[in-house]
Amino acid sequence: xxxxxxxxxxxxxxxxxxxxxxxxxxxxxxxxxxxxxxxxxxxxxxxxxxxxxxxxxxxxxxxxxxxxxxxxxxxxxxxxxxxxxxxxxxx
Length: 91
What we know:
Blueprint: H1 14-27, H2 31-61, H3 66-82
Helix pairs in contact: 1-2
């Protein structure tokens, strides 16, 4: 199934054009496809950055320090060791 496309014009500097040419050659795709991939990759990277920033903010609000995190991890590990896969206490 073909995706709908829009023909558009952008002005880029020579260095960016050269980089686009190299990417297209390396990926063995058209310049348009290389540009689409680069934009999608950059957009995905910003989502990851946003998610990491949200996690950092949550940890700050929770006042999650390394000692508190280690204590929680140890308690969780002990709980898992004391219970079987079915959630019942191990014998």
